[in-house]
UniProtKB/TrEMBL annotation:
Protein species of origin: Vreelandella sedimenti
The keyword Metal-binding is annotated on this UniProt entry: yes
Residues at which a divalent metal cation 2 binds: 64
Name of the protein in its database record: GTP cyclohydrolase 1 type 2 homolog
PANTHER family on file: GTP CYCLOHYDROLASE 1 TYPE 2 HOMOLOG (PTHR13799:SF14), NGG1 INTERACTING FACTOR 3 (PTHR13799)
Residues that hold a divalent metal cation 1 according to the record: 65, 102, 221, 225
Protein family according to the UniProt entry: Belongs to the GTP cyclohydrolase I type 2/NIF3 family.
A Pfam family of this chain: DUF34_NIF3
GO MF annotations in UniProt: metal ion binding
Length: 253
């Protein structure tokens, strides 16, 4: 068991939360009880995850997608009211890290995606490793885009959407950014990547990929961002002797 504020401070420090300009609050978003024994992790603090936390008698919920996003309505009504009421009624804290958890060099979403897929990390295109969000590297051996897509589907247990650039052959150099980063495709191409992997796709992404000449694989926002929060939860469990449980709330997007 650990004091809530000590655990929050450890996460803030490990992820360098104060260094990121983000669209939301990174860190403690809702304060529950002071003592934490059980931490439940998940991608998004949806009602289904909160219900699982209540049933498990969790003291804290730790997520990648929390609340209080830029430009969202500030009134605590409707869905937001029900979610926050669930936390407060059961004295559960909500801890959330967005960009800091994408960027972390060892247990961030990008680092963990590369580890699960066996990609060799060479650096970040948009900043130092551990600070940038657009990662680059190489496959362990050249793959066709169909072979790479099949590996991603098997590993993530989700069929990706593939936009093939006909003029590009086998892939050696790859770039990736988890989540909704489809507009980084131009930067990936200009850095020499033959394929770019992210979570989502926009209508324009198809034309960019085909006309520039870079394969694009949309592997799912949720699917590509399941691993960072699990790694952070396991780190907390090892460092502070708290119980950790990850719950994957199904989300095809």
């Amino acid at each position: 068991m650990i004091h809530r504020d000590q655990l929050v401070a450890a996460c803030d420090h490990q992820l360098r939360a104060s260094e990121f300009k983000d669209f939301t609050i990174n860190g403690l978003q809702v304060a529950g009880g002071e003592q934490v024994k059980r931490i439940m992790t998940g991608v998004t603090a949806c009602q289904a995850l909160l219900d699982e936390a209540v049933a498990w008698q969790a003291d804290m919920v730790l997520v990648h997608h929390g609340y209080f996003w830029k430009n969202e309505p500030v009134a605590i009504t409707g869905m937001k009211q029900r979610r926050i009421k669930t936390l407060l009624d059961h004295d559960i804290s909500l801890l959330a890290y967005h960009l800091p958890l994408d960027a972390h060099a060892e247990m961030g979403n990008n680092a963990e995606l590369a580890r699960h897929l066996g990609w060799k990390v060479e650096g970040c295109i948009d900043g130092a490793l551990g600070q940038g969000l657009l990662w680059s590297g190489r496959l362990p051996q050249p793959h066709s885009v169909s072979a790479l897509a099949a590996q991603i589907a098997q590993t993530l247990q989700r069929e990706p959407l593939v936009i093939e650039a006909p003029q590009v052959g086998d892939i050696e150099r790859i770039a990736w950014c988890t989540g909704g980063a489809q507009d980084m495709i131009t930067d990936a191409y200009e850095a020499g990547a033959q394929a770019f992997v992210s979570g989502e796709i926009s209508e324009r992404t198809t034309h960019l990929a085909r006309e520039m000449g870079i394969h694009y694989i949309a592997a799912g926002h949720h699917a590509t961002e399941r691993y960072g929060v699990q790694a952070l939860g396991e780190w907390l469990s090892d460092e502070y002797d708290v119980e950790h449980r990850f719950v994957d709330i199904d989300n095809p997007a």
